[in-house]
Amino acid sequence: xxxxxxxxxxxxxxxxxxxxxxxxxxxxxxxxxxxxxxxxxxxxxxxxxxxxxxxxxxxxxxxxxxxxxxxxxxxxxxxxxxxxxxxxxxxxxxxxxxxxxx
Length: 102
Description:
The chain has 102 residues and is mostly helical.
């Protein structure tokens, strides 16, 4: 891909032609489609490894260093009426991308 819009500081071009933007978006969507199975495999392997290493503080296997630690999370169990008093509603735009099967 000639344009790299994947780093955090990069922005899609503004003010360019629709054809340029369409081409860039098309390239990114094709690349996403190609990488999706790899990402799914990565997530499965990552989850399995992290599950296996629960409770292991530190170890090395060949060129990999694994470190683990316990983190505490506070959970407040409040009665429903009290929770509702302090509840806020936010909106979030959800984007779902799927490939159209030919």
